[in-house]
Amino acid sequence: MKSCFQLLALAIVFTTLTLPAVADNAEKREQAERVVTEFWDRVWSAPADLRAIDELVVVDFGLTSAGREIEGRDNLKTWVEAFQEKAKDVRL
Q1: Distances 5 to 2, 28, 33, 70 between C-alpha atoms, Å
Q2: Residue 54: closest CA among 75, 32, 26
Q3: Quick check: 24 and 39 in contact, CB under 8 A?
Q4: What is the pTM of this model?
Q5: Euclidean distance between CA atoms 69 and 48, whole angstroms
Q6: Region for 91 from its dihedrals, namely left if φ exceeds 0, alpha if ψ lies in -120 to 50, beta otherwise
Q7: Among candidates 27, 75, 24, 81, which has minimal Cα distance to 50?
Q8: Contact 32, 22 (CB under 8 A)
Q9: pLDDT for 22-62, tens place per residue?
Q10: 67-73: long-range pairs with CB below 8 Å, 24+
């Protein structure tokens, strides 16, 4: 259950960091919302499509999770894959 809460927290953080940056432009905001939704549908919903990370995530991506730094797409894929192993059949 703790992992699901951490995932929900990550979703909230990702969304709140992404969308306000484009809030002043309705078209850009809608585009950002589509990308965020596609990311959650393809990457976090089982089965995870890790190839989507290459399409949807910037090259210099960085994230801190539980004090651990995850930098770059390949490390994000590894992290998502490990998370999916612990939370099989997750659907967000």
Answers
A1: 5, 29, 22, 19
A2: 75
A3: no
A4: 0.66
A5: 21
A6: beta
A7: 81
A8: yes
A9: 556 788 888 888 888 899 889 888 788 999 999 998 888 88
A10: none
